[in-house]
Amino acid sequence: MNLRNLNNQHRHRVEVFDFYEANRAGRRAAITSTRQVIKDLKAAQHQSTQTPTEFPKRAWGPGGERRPKSLHGTGMLRTRGVPTTAHTGATAYPYVAGTSLGADGLYIGRDLNGGGAFCFDPWQLYERGVISGMSMILFGQVGMGKSSLAKSLAVRLVLAGRKLSVASDRKGEWTQVVRALGGSVIQVGPGMGTRINPLDPGTRPNLNAQGEPLTDEGWALMVRTRRMAILVTLAKILTNRELSPAEHHVLSLALDTGVDGATHRAGTVVIPDVIAALEADKTHPDRLVAEACSVMAMTLHRMTTGDLAGMFDGETTAHFAADAPATSIDTSALQGASPEAIRVVNACSGAWTEAMVTTSDGGQRLVVYEEGWDNISSEADLRRMVEGWKLARAYGIFNVLILHKVSDLDMAGDRGSKMAAMAKSLLADADVKVIYRQDASALRVTTDELELSDRERSLLKYLDEGVGLWRLGGSSFQVKNDLDRVELGLFNTDQRLTTTTATTAQGVRA
After folding, report:
1. Dihedral (C-alpha) 292, 197, 332, 338: value to the nearest 10 degrees?
2. Which 8-state DSSP code applies to residue 359?
3. How far is CA 85 from the centre of its chain?
4. Using 50, 70 and 90 to split pLDDT, how confident is the model at 148?
5. Which residues, other chains included, contact 124 with Cβ-Cβ below 8 Å and sequence gap of 6+?
6. 8 A C-beta contact, residue 85 and residue 103
7. Are 371 and 339 in contact (CB under 8 A)?
């Protein structure tokens, strides 16, 4: 074997030995590592069986522990605003929208603050806790669209399964709306031939105020209370004063006597029955009773003569369908009547309507007071409205009062009077307020009474026709009421004026 071959064999033996030693060292390291892992696992298992005495130490990521400005670990992100001009901000952020009531309810129009479609349903909002009262007040100048809003809301609610009642439609604007909905219109006025008995018992509910079955005795007490209330109201309107105790007493006796007489003839007590009972007691031995009977008899005779004759002096000739989708009492034939006659008609029609609809079995119903300024000027109407406001939730009713401006509430009475306080309570109890454009003089009172913000005040100066400021649930919305073609034709309150103007123009051209 030469030297070259010997060197090659020697080199080969060294390389094999080195490879073997390297593998041996790796196996030792692997065994050591495995033993350490097993030891650590046993230690961890032993520690888990003991009750921990402190929280484990925080384990940080590869970035290490938190250091100032290292962006590792936990920290508080501080945001700082960017100063800019209003124009730049509006251009850079054009897609910022206001709050929204959601999609539940009926479509009313567009939320001009970017909230999309504005939907409204008072019963759903009450169930969600957005509103706590079931009343709405509409304010706005003439021709700004407040009546169209009330009618569109009524039509859409009726089409959704609710009902509508208009107690006194002085202008006859709701007649074609109610008829288009398949409802019934009762027209009252001189020469109309329609009678409404204000002493009708009304619709009997199945349950009383405590939710228990209503007994015959309980129903009789409810009917007598209603009848006595309307008699006292009529006497107050016609005498323009409070009644004396003797007058209250004789009215109560005459009512009971009239009810007994009507029962014998199998009929319903009417105003002439009460008058006949008062006439019979004019010769009562007690002088106070005799005088009170004489005064009350002459007072109630006003209901059967003059401009009120034939309207409330007999049994009801109109039929009230409790299941009708809409009802209204058209009193437009009273244009030009005396203020006393109008108040009597409002009291009788309102009391009769509420006797029919204020029942928990009647379903959910919208009650509209079209000429609110006229209702609040009568103490009888105002008291009835305040009671309806308080009991709306029990009866499933949503009230809508339409006024021109907030100062119309001052027509109820002098500042500090009881009637003024009742009118203010209507405003306070209305959880939904919709305000259309106001002039400068009315805007000052509106701002003070409704506590408008600077933004809301500035909006009310320049709102377009059909756009209103809605305030409910602690938020405000700028809503454009959208009407379809059918609604535009039905809600045109200027139809008579337009027709008259066109006729006059044709006459001039001729």
Report:
1. -10
2. S
3. 40
4. very high
5. 104, 105
6. no
7. no
Instruction: State pTM to two decimals.
Output: 0.71
Q: Measure the CA–CA gap between 423 and 376, rounded to whole angstroms.
A: 7
Q: Pairing state of beta strands 467-472 and 475-481? A: antiparallel
- Residue 151: closest CA among 392, 390, 398, 400: 400
pLDDT at position 399 is: 92
For the chain, the C-alpha Rg in angstroms (whole number) is: 40
Distance CA 146, CA 139 (A): 7
According to DSSP, the β-strands at 116-120 and 106-111 are: antiparallel
- Taking Cα atoms as reference points, which of 60, 64, 154, 172 lies closest to residue 108? 154
Indicate the range of 294-298, 321-325, 442-446, 462-466 predicted with least confidence: 321-325
Which tokens is 98 given? 């206001």
Q: Which of 469, 467, 446 is nearest to 145 (CA)?
A: 467
β-sheet bridge partners, residue 402: 138
Q: Give one DSSP letter per residue of 473-498, joined into a string.
A: TTEEEEEEE---HHHHHHS-TTHHHH
Q: Highest mean pLDDT: which of 49-63, 100-114, 366-380?
A: 100-114
pLDDT band with cut points at 50, 70 and 90 for residue 501 = very low
The amino acid at 160: A
Q: What is d(CA 291, CA 10) in angstroms, rounded to the nearest whole number? A: 151
| CA-CA-CA-CA torsion sign (390, 395, 398, 399) | negative
Question: How long, in residues, is the chain?
Answer: 510
Which sequence spans correspond to the domains of the chain?
A: 163-363
Torsion angle defined by CA atoms of residues 169, 185, 322 and 197, in that order, rounded to the nearest 10 degrees: 70
Backbone angles phi, psi at 183, to 5 degrees: -95, -170
Outline where 244-401 has alpha helix (H). Answer: 245-264, 271-280, 287-301, 339-357, 372-376, 379-390, 392-395
Strand order in the sheet with 135-139: 116-120, 106-111, 475-481, 467-472, 432-435, 135-139, 397-402, 365-369, 163-169, 326-330, 184-187
**Chain centre distance of CA 329:** 22
